[in-house]
Amino acid sequence: METTIDETAAESAMEARAAGLVYETLAEALLNVPDERILSDVARVADVLGAEGLDRFEASADLEQRYFDRFFVPSSPYFVPLSESCLRGSAVVDGGRRYGPTAGPDIDHVEQCYRSWSFELSSLTGYPLAVKTLRADSLASELAFAALLAQAESEARSEDEAKRCRTWRGRFVNRHLARWADQAAEAVAETDDDFFARLCALVAAWVSFDQRGLAARTDSANA
């Protein structure tokens, strides 16, 4: 007996799988001290997307220290709180960036999305301090959730289930990641053009790419 394969469904599943791996790689890069594996994974994603400058970094004590300065030392001139509420509510005043409040409707909605999919921040792994200080609207958290949605689509057992996962991802990207990824990249780049500035620029580029791809597939399905 011959087995037939729905080529369109198979292609969609592979695209979703690839998207999930990109989101997962970017989330891991924010959740871990940048070692050789992390740097190599990020460089591969950058190469696929045509982003430059991410293959020149090497694991070092200085890069590790910059990781801490970027994300865990508020007194550092390089510190940026990579959370949606803080950055969407931020503004540059007198040459310096003032960040918004840590609470608000954005993080409330993100938490509702997570509950709908039983997504727990405690399920994420990485450098202990990075995981411990995660917020629901942290960039790493939102990237990890998008990865979960893409993976769920790739593993869906029916087109309806796959469409539901894809629709969720599209809405989450539009409502959250796409509305502040560029701002995150700008804030990090304001202090230095280092690995983390390039990483956040890569995140913004990928989110925009995925947003356009999801929109195109929606338009095609509705045509």
Concise overview:
By secondary structure, the protein is an all-alpha fold. 66% of the residues lie in helices and 3% in strands.
Description:
66% of the residues lie in helices and 3% in strands. It has 223 residues and is mostly helical. A two-stranded antiparallel ribbon has the order 1-2. It starts with 6 loop residues before the first helix and ends with a helix. It is globular. The protein has 9 helices and 2 strands. A hairpin with a 2-residue loop joins strand 1 and strand 2. Helix 1 packs across helix 2 and helix 8 runs antiparallel to helix 9. The protein has one domain: TorD-like, CATH 1.10.3480. The longest helix is centred in the C-terminal third of the chain and has 31 residues.
Topology:
Elements (H helix, E strand, L loop, with lengths): L6 H25 L4 H14 L11 H11 L12 H5 L2 E3 L2 E3 L6 H12 L11 H5 L6 H16 L4 H31 L5 H28 L1
Helix pairs in contact: 1-2, 1-7, 1-9, 7-8, 8-9
Major sheet attributes? 2 strands, antiparallel
Shape: globular
Question: What is the CATH topology classification name?
Answer: TorD-like
Number of helical regions: 9
- How much beta, percentage-wise? under 5%
Could you say what the CATH architecture is? Answer: Orthogonal Bundle
CATH class, named: Mainly Alpha
Record keyword descriptors for this entry.
223 residues, mainly alpha, TorD-like, two-stranded antiparallel sheet, 9 helices, 3% strand, disordered N terminus
